[in-house]
Design brief:
By secondary structure, this protein is mainly β. It has a single domain, classed as Jelly Rolls (Sandwich). Strands 2, 4, 5, 6, 7, 8, 12 and 13 form an eight-stranded antiparallel sheet that branches. Strands 1-14-3-9-10-11 form a six-stranded antiparallel sheet. Strands 15-18 form a two-stranded antiparallel sheet. It is globular. The relative contact order is 0.21.
Length: about 220
């Protein structure tokens, strides 16, 4: 069920969600990535995901120098990218970006990455989310992307690691919610929309779970 990109002209284009239109908002982005050539073609920048807001604000996940890097520009100030450790071709990696109070946190397989990347990376020119290449059609990625999620809040580091444990090795039949994600009185529910790759089916609603204080006992 993963999305395959041919390194030439494949891409997915998504209208820009409101959560990205103000970088004072908190959010989380996560996805699994498998590159065909992150190690064997380390001198070329290839864009995996670009979130292009406008000419002064954007985020980008790209591969370069045998690593996955996170570049970002805020109010016209292009920051030095954050970089992962060196990675291998044809291996799956779980990437999570937490944006909290205007600051990015980059996780690989549930572990925080704090290496310095490059500052001089290319950018697109069209608003939206683009997976597989820049919005201008260049710097195409060759490989696979799976389990692409956007959350409208900053997930906790504990939840990021739990997400990695829940989805590694192809597992995707359950999710575990850490206590750090909940508060007393929260009402949690799940809506599942089946899809046969052509159209959505009828939504299926779960029961509502209310977070209550533990009253003791067995």
């Amino acid at each position: 069920g993963a999305y395959r990109f041919d390194g030439s002209d494949d891409r997915i284009e998504i209208p820009l969600p409101d959560i990205f239109k103000d970088l004072n908002n908190n959010f989380t982005l996560s996805l699994w990535i498998r590159s065909d050539d992150i190690s064997s073609n380390s001198t070329e920048i290839k864009t995996i995901v670009e979130i292009y807001i406008d000419e002064n604000n954007s985020l980008q996940i790209f591969q370069y120098n045998s690593s996955i890097q996170l570049g970002f520009k805020v109010d016209g100030d292009k920051k030095q990218a954050l970089r992962s450790m060196e990675l291998l071709d044809n291996q799956w990696y779980f990437v999570t970006i937490i944006w909290r109070s205007g600051n990015p946190y980059f996780y690989l397989n549930g572990s925080l990455q704090a290496f310095s990347g490059i500052r001089d990376y290319p950018e697109g020119n069209k608003s939206g989310i683009f997976i597989g290449q820049l919005s201008n059609g260049s710097h195409s990625f060759k490989g696979c992307v799976d389990e692409f999620y956007v959350y409208n809040y900053a997930r906790s580091p504990q939840q990021v690691y739990q997400d990695y444990l829940d989805t590694r090795d192809g597992s995707s039949d359950h999710r575990t919610l850490k206590s750090s994600e909940t508060r007393l009185g929260d009402a949690w529910s799940c809506t599942i929309i089946p899809n046969d790759s052509h159209e959505d089916g009828k939504p299926i609603e779960s029961n509502v779970l209310i977070i209550e204080a533990y009253g003791g006992g067995s």
